[in-house]
Amino acid sequence: MLIFFFYNKSKLIYNFDQKMTNIESQKSVSLPPGETGLPFIGETLSFLFDPDFAKKKKSKYGQIYKTNIFGNDTVTMIGAEANQFLFRNENKYVVSTWPKSTRVLLGKLSLAVKDGNFHTSRRKLLAQAFQPRALNSYIPKMTEITQQYVEKWLQTKELTWYPELRKYTFDVACSLLISIDNASQTKLASDFETWCQGLFTLPINLPWTNFGKALKCRAKLLQEIETIIINRQQQPKHQNDALGILLEAKDEEGNSLTIEELKDQILLLLFAGHETLTSSLSSFVLLMAQHPNILEKVRTEQENLNITEDITSEKLKEMTYLEEVLKEVLRFIPPVGGGFRKVIEEFEFQGYRIPKDWTVQYQIAQTHKESDIFPDYQTFDPERFSPENMADKQKNFGYIPFGGGLRECLGKEFARLEMKIFASVLVHNCHWQLLPDQDLEMITIPSPRPRDGLKVKITEV
Ligand code: HEM
């Protein structure tokens, strides 16, 4: 065995069997271009409050750039190749991470903050609540809640829809996940709202900061969820909701979830199924109001389906044009703009060095603007997803509203189901139009929503 030693300023570089490990050339690979902003806060404020932050950075620096957000040196990597690299190297070069505020508020037992084998095993267990049989059993309740809300909205004639949609998705989530009806009218909802407001903030725990208030509410929410779990355990037969399924579920070694863990997992599911869905539903109603020809085609499909009885999974499968529209809604205004990963081993990508311990962000919103997959990407065009075009199948990880790889959204079928039922019931019963004099610019964090909350006039069909 030959061992080469080089003396280089302060360090010895060695090599085995003449396989030259060119550490010097690795070091000469540069970091991506970009700025790191102000001390401590970096560029966090622009990231949070400038809806064009990612767009401006991309036009200045291209597909890969560095910044500093949430107290971390961060590299943003844009495009299908970048997504593929990150999703395929999960646990090798990167692991999932969230801003500190999110991590703390989700809790240390939450699936979202776990890695490796533990994450895989827990994911399998939680996935039981989203299997086709479970999803089918959710259809009647989802439809019923949607119909109640639609009736209520029709009575008001004019409404600010986004806050109403938040109540609706919260009621659906609480009803199907933990069998609490009308939860939006309870203390659970107000605590939950305050908790949500702290999720993507600087983690400064003071009584008047959003993070400090959210921490207090986390404690209250866990207490409320614990009471719900204990009550449920005392009932002889568990109800057919996600909590019932999770109380029965066991991992490979036959262990059930402890109450402590169940509380964090329930909180995660309530959050994941609420914020994102509210955004996607409000984008659907907004985009339909702005594209009446497309809405008309959706209506025609619904009429032709002749739904006189309850909505069934078979009927939902026949809504193929609506499916294309909903895919385009998630491309055009993705509810999650991107995801964060922590670098566990330094790597090189497209000629740039990404150091260990930095954060990497993959970008959903910018990926969905890649013109090779989505020509004329500024146009809202559901035909991209027709059987002839299938834009979602053209390139690996080129269409990723639900992320990808080991961390792909666990609730994506639940989300697709709720979006379809909502759209079907709404289109069957209502016409709606945007009221004048409102700001439709999107606030993007944590999920996109129109600044003035989407004011509409709504009438019966
Ligand atoms: C339109 C609605 C939704 C969108 C766009 C969406 C999007 C996403 C994305 C992009 C991720 C991956 C984040 C990452 O890579 O770090 C994710 C993860 C996740 N989502 Fe969703 N989601 C939606 C609805 C839901 C619903 C309804 C649930 C459950 C009720 C849910 C549960 C989860 C969970 C548990 C994870 C974490 C998975 C893991 O870490 O293994 N999501 N979601």
TrEMBL record:
Entry binding sites for heme: 409
Cofactor(s) essential for the protein: heme
InterPro entries (alphabetical): Cyt_P450, Cyt_P450_CS, Cyt_P450_E_grp-IV, Cyt_P450_sf
GO process annotations (BP): sterol metabolic process
Annotated GO MF terms: heme binding; iron ion binding; monooxygenase activity; oxidoreductase activity, acting on paired donors, with incorporation or reduction of molecular oxygen
Record keywords, A-Z: Heme, Iron, Metal-binding, Monooxygenase, Oxidoreductase
Family per record: Belongs to the cytochrome P450 family.
Record-given protein name: Cytochrome P450
Lineage of producing organism: Bacteria, Bacillati, Cyanobacteriota, Cyanophyceae, Oscillatoriophycideae
